[in-house]
Design a protein that fits this description.
Elements lengths: L1 H10 L4 E6 L6 H12 L3 E7 L5 H8 L2 H7 L2 E5 L7 E5 L3 E5 L5 H6 L4 E5 L1 H16 L1 E4 L1 H5 L3 H11 L6
Parallel strand pairs: 1-2, 2-3
Antiparallel strand pairs: 1-4, 3-7, 4-5, 5-6
Helix pairs in contact: 1-2, 2-4, 3-8
Length: 166
Amino acid sequence: VPFIVYVSAITFAEHSIHMTNSYFIPDDQIVKALTDAARRGVDVKIILPGITDSQLALYAQRYHYSGLLKSGVKIYEHSTSLLHAKTAVVDKVWSTVGSTNMDFLSLLKNDEVNAIILSREFAVEMERMFDRDLAHSTQITRDEWINRPLFPRIREWFVNLFVRWL
């Protein structure tokens, strides 16, 4: 159910998607929904960990940056502490908070719980928290990303081969 809910919220977003996730290893359907949203003019911002307890998860996460950045998704890495949040706010009215990471195990295999709240007042509070986290994050630019060294690219590609087990 979390998978269908996330894809639907992203697919039908009209203005904004502001997401924070501690393990971001999306499948092709999530990536397509996010890139399609950005291409149709939705403000898509994602805060992801820059510091993690799993280097492999960090490399797998970064594998997806190129396509997301190319489509206009804005990616930020939070680097002041270990990021554990799993939240999203869509169009300043739909919010979710829960235990669901954006990875294969969490979305399709694990027992996860998310609260979905349809409330402008709650969404305003969620946006405030998102903005605070954004202030402690560094934006990853497309130019910076496409000009990074070869070794990290190879490492990200290799780790991505094993994402079903991360």
